Amino acid sequence: MKTSLFIIDAFTDRAFSGNPAAVCLMDSNKDDAWMQSVAAEMNLSETAFLYPLDADLWSLRWFTPSVEVNLCGHATLAAAHLLRHELALAKGPMKFFTRSGILTATAVDAAICLDFPGFIAEPVELSADFDAAIGAQTTAALRAGDDLILVLPDAHTVASLNPDLSLVRGLTERGVAVTAAAPADSRWDFVSRFFAPVVGIAEDPVTGSAHCSLGPYWGKMLGKTQLTAYQASARGGEIGMELMGDRVRLLGQAKTVLKGELYA
């Protein structure tokens, strides 16, 4: 198997929107430094490295331009889309061996359903540092693992934010999700944006992993187990969610926009 490289837009049904991920399809494991160098060269929020472990299991790792991360939704969606819809290498459920354990993905018509761990965000004390960093008044703050969730008054405030990334960097170990309920006449339940300068991503266009905590939070607030969210970045993207106890199913589509081959 050649070392092939693909760029796939995730959580969207059209090209040049959603969140682009590079997917490197390998025949065996590679050196960590090489993978980090490839991710830096791609300069996308995530590059996924994928190779077969056996007939039913794939190794999957995710790198930002500067670090390896423990969980990534959009690059997992891109990898599953590649295996099922682009290369037809998987006919049934796809299993990935990752830093977050075994993750599964299943094709649902043109979309992919990801079975991910859910995280319960715990409230933290509001701080003036939060408002100063994001440039808006927060109404609630929560922490979910390495991420901070800041709840804002309305969806318009989320969409119009221009945060001070130098201050955002000091708030958390990975990223800051800002979120609000969607308007009553919207087809979405909530909106969000995600900033992660700590790991080399100023703003992530669509963040599947953040919805592993945003979904349970808004599910509790709205009394729902099935939700649809919009990440209001410049590219934008839609994520469907189903809450299943301590698991979250993320649903989205993807589009392949580039196919190539690595020479290095």
UniProtKB/TrEMBL annotation:
InterPro entries: Phenazine_PhzF-like. GO terms for cellular component: cytoplasm. SUPFAM superfamilies: Diaminopimelate epimerase-like. GO terms for molecular function: isomerase activity. Keywords: Isomerase. It holds the Pfam family PhzC-PhzF. PANTHER family: PHENAZINE BIOSYNTHESIS PROTEIN (PTHR13774), PHENAZINE BIOSYNTHESIS-LIKE DOMAIN-CONTAINING PROTEIN (PTHR13774:SF17). Belongs to the PhzF family. This is Phenazine biosynthesis protein PhzF family. It comes from Methylomonas methanica (strain DSM 25384 / MC09).
